[in-house]
Specification:
By secondary structure, the protein is mainly β. Helix content is 9%, strand content 52%. The strands form two sheets. Strands 1, 3, 4, 7, 10 and 12 form a six-stranded antiparallel sheet that branches.
């Protein structure tokens, strides 16, 4: 009768499973230091002050007759570059006691010196704000998320604006921000941030041993 012996032969079976998961990278557009904002009295003697209150950026004017603004010029190392595809803007802000206008500047343009089509005017490209042809955002609280592609498509000058603003690698670089206080409004911004979704591939392996006998 033949006995069974465990041989030393070992067979490795490796199962590789490729998993695709989504990872979100979040970048805030709002600085933590309010002193980096500049006040511009564009049409009169009024100015604005910028404070941080309970984590929110608050813009107030010192009058009610004009439309001064707070301007943020990001240094080259602080500018935010994100891919157009897969990136959304998340916003959460309130306009109280008047109106506002909010501009996002791109590709090195800034509130100090800018040219047409190198900025996004929020009221013209975010449906919740009314898609108005004018510059002003009506009083109210606004919050939501919109993709950068949708924002550009909603602009009347979409093709030209995107052609001028986008980088060669199909990214956008955000370089400045302007928030107006129109008619004495108080603008409280809880959130302006970019959310970029990235796909991550992960490989897992399982190794098992087979025993052969004689």
């Amino acid at each position: 009768m033949k006995k069974l012996f465990i041989t030393s032969a070992v067979f490795a079976i490796i199962f590789s499973v490729c998993l695709i998961s989504a990872s979100a990278v979040t970048t805030s557009y709002l600085p933590e230091d309010p002193s980096v904002w500049k006040s511009f009295a564009e049409d009169g003697p009024e100015n604005v002050t910028v404070t941080i209150e309970d984590g929110a950026t608050v813009v107030r004017s010192d009058g009610t007759a004009h439309w001064p603004c707070a301007a943020l010029n990001l240094s080259e190392e602080d500018q935010i570059t994100v891919p157009i595809e897969g990136t959304s803007l998340e916003y959460d802000f309130t306009v109280d006691g008047g109106k506002s206008s909010i501009l996002f500047f791109m590709k090195g343009d800034s509130p100090d010196s800018y040219t047409q089509n190198m900025y996004i005017r929020m009221v013209n490209c975010v449906p919740e704000l009314g898609m108005a042809l004018e510059a002003d955002i009506a009083p109210g609280t606004y919050s939501g998320t919109i993709t950068l592609e949708e924002m550009f498509k909603n602009m009347s000058t979409y093709q030209e604006a995107l052609k001028l603003a986008k980088n060669d690698d199909n990214t956008l670089t955000f370089s400045g921000l302007k928030i107006y206080s129109v008619g004495g409004s108080v603008v409280t911004v809880n959130k302006f941030q970019f959310i970029t979704t990235e796909e991550i591939s992960a490989t897992s392996s399982d190794e098992s041993k087979a025993v052969s006998t004689d």
